[in-house]
Write a structure and sequence with these properties.
Structural class: alpha/beta
Distance between the termini: 12 Å
CATH class: Alpha Beta
Strand content: 15-25%
Helix content: 25-40%
Order of helices and strands: EEEHEEHEHEEHHEH
Number of strands: 9
CATH topology: Spore Coat Polysaccharide Biosynthesis Protein SpsA, Chain A
Strand order of the largest sheet: 5-4-1-6-8-7-9
Number of domains: 1
Radius of gyration: 16 Å
CATH superfamily: Spore Coat Polysaccharide Biosynthesis Protein SpsA, Chain A
Number of helices: 6
CATH architecture: Alpha-Beta Complex
């Protein structure tokens, strides 16, 4: 399922403290960087993809067609700043794409119907935003954002707000629910133990596919 009017941002601007400061998108899962897994999941669903990351962009040279967009605010203020940077980039470079899909860079099992179901959820609820949910828990960093929300989001950040969920709720956010079993499609590898769990999920999957298609 595709959404030609969507741009995706892979959020990788954090400090990865729980991973010992390692560059999470470049850590390997099943012999490939986590970033490669996320790109495989996202690219078929959108018109274009960018990466929100801070520091030296050259470390992502293996993906020459992937624009690297740093936070526009200093001090690593979190994923909300990455969403804002992506919205600003979209307004400047891809104004033809009115929707932004945000996903963390450590979620290798994203479902193939993510964009389509988020779009259906926000339209069905008559709300500007929609985020993913599984097991009764919302995942506000996995969301579909209209580009027109960038100024309200900027004002929230400038006012000191850092929680994606609170800003999304303030702006109006529906949820699209996926089952969390047998494996949560929004599993994120935040720690070495979680990365090892993701390896186990890949090993258990049929050789002709990966979890969730």
């Amino acid at each position: 399922m595709t959404a030609p009017g969507s741009l995706a941002v892979i959020l990788a601007g954090g400090l990865a403290r729980r991973m010992g400061g390692a560059d999470k998108p470049l850590l390997h899962l099943g012999g490939r960087p986590l970033l490669a897994h996320v790109l495989d999941r996202v690219r078929p669903q959108v018109a274009a993809v960018i990466l929100n990351a801070n520091g030296e962009a050259a470390r992502f040279a293996a993906w020459p067609a992937l624009p690297v967009v740093p936070d526009s605010l200093p001090g690593h203020p979190g994923p909300l700043a990455g969403v804002l940077a992506a919205l600003d980039w979209a307004a400047a470079h891809r104004p033809d794409l009115p929707l932004l899909l945000s996903v963390p860079g450590d979620t290798p099992f994203l479902p193939p119907d993510l964009v389509a179901r988020l779009e259906a959820a926000r339209r069905g609820a008559g709300l500007p935003l929609a985020c993913a949910a599984s097991g009764g828990q919302r995942h506000p960093t996995i969301a579909l954002w209209p580009i027109g929300l960038r100024e309200p989001l900027r004002q929230a950040l400038l006012a000191g707000e850092r929680k994606v969920g609170r800003v999304a709720a303030m702006l109006g956010c529906a949820a699209a629910e996926w089952p969390a079993l047998p494996c949560d499609p929004f599993f994120n590898a935040n720690t070495p133990d979680e990365l090892a769990r993701a390896e186990a999920v890949l090993r258990a999957a049929p050789t002709t596919t990966t979890p969730f298609g």
